[in-house]
Specification:
Elements (H helix, E strand, L loop, with lengths): L1 H26 L5 E5 L10 E6 L4 E5 L6 H10 L3 E6 L5 H12 L5 E7 L4 H7 L1 H15 L4 E4 L6 E4 L2 E5 L11 H4 L4 E4 L4 E4 L5 H8 L11 E3 L10 H6 L4 E4 L3 H4 L14 H10 L4 E4 L5 E3 L1
Parallel strand pairs: 3-4, 4-5, 5-6, 10-11, 11-12, 12-13
Antiparallel strand pairs: 1-2, 1-14, 2-3, 7-8, 8-9, 9-10
């Protein structure tokens, strides 16, 4: 009997050692990309993220406003001036303004592919006439740039760049005429073996509800979540409550974060404070704010 017990103990210990090794290996999963949340340059709304893969390939998400072009160019120059992929969530100036300027004056930057979901002229002229001229300019410069352009009309496609994956979860919603540009933001899930991220662009309540109730619900849980529409008047509170995430990325100027439109803290018409309180209630302790400086995530 003692010999049998000894064999059992050895088997149990062996299984425990193997499990410990497996857990250790999982905890040491290699990260295939680094993300930078670029800091606000002129204290205005903007959305600008840069990824670099382990082998050096660079990906840009949006890029910010025209006035931030010089900073973005300098950042990309430091990474070698070659951009493997550039994703534009939607054609608002605070998301594609810098890229539009680069397309007009490319300098040393070499862009391989731009991914976006184009709005038809009938849509942007009817729903946001004040942005129609800039949108048309951007599409013109993009079409005449010689850069490969991928225009997504349907969600579900995944772009793989050196074991980092970019999955398009939503595209332009031509039938949503409430908050039309923002609700046409491409939502993009990004992940590698170590971490996952969800970028919502400026998606509003209508687009967020459609995304949550659509076929890609299981792709919404993530480690890092980009706060929709700079953290105010974006997706619904229930959207935030019902998905799992642990870190907030705020592409947000200080006055939006403080809801201060000139009269002091929380005296404006923005909903940022409500969303901040919601994040606190959800126990989200790690939050990165673009107005506080450059953020790097490995």
């Amino acid at each position: 009997m003692k010999k049998i017990k000894s064999i059992k103990i050895i088997i149990v210990l062996s299984a425990f050692v193997m499990l410990s090794i497996q857990v250790s290996l999982l905890s040491q999963e290699a990260s295939n990309f680094t993300l930078w949340q670029l800091p606000s340059q002129i204290n205005t709304i903007g959305n600008s993220y840069v990824f670099q893969m382990n082998n050096g390939k660079v990906v840009v998400m949006d890029g910010g406003v025209k006035a931030e072009t010089a900073f973005l160019k300098g950042f990309l120059a430091a990474l070698g001036n070659d951009v493997e992929a550039w994703f534009i969530s939607h054609p608002h100036s605070d998301h594609m303004g810098a890229l539009n300027q680069i397309l007009m004056e490319p300098g040393e930057i070499r862009i391989k592919t731009v991914y976006h979901s184009a709005l038809p002229p009938s849509f942007y002229q009817a729903n946001e006439a004040q942005n129609a001229t800039l949108t048309e300019s951007f599409y013109h410069h993009l079409d005449s740039s010689g850069i490969q352009v991928v225009n997504y009309a349907q969600p579900g496609m995944t772009v793989e760049i050196d074991q980092t994956y970019f999955k398009i979860l939503s595209v332009a919603n031509h039938d949503i005429t409430v908050n039309p540009y923002n609700n046409s933001s491409m939502a993009i899930r990004v992940w590698d073996a170590k971490k996952s991220m969800l970028f919502l662009g400026d998606m509003g309540i209508e687009g967020g509800d459609r995304l949550y109730n659509g076929p890609y619900r299981n792709d919404l849980d993530c480690d890092y979540l980009q706060m929709a529409h700079h953290g105010q008047q974006g997706v619904s509170k229930d959207f935030y409550r019902n998905i799992d995430f642990r870190v907030c990325l705020w592409p947000t100027p200080s006055w939006v974060y403080e809801n201060d439109q000139g009269e002091g803290y929380n005296t404006g018409t923005l909903q940022t404070i409500e969303i901040r309180e919601l994040m606190d209630s959800l126990g989200i302790e790690e939050q990165h704010l673009s107005f506080e400086g450059l953020v790097r995530i490995d």
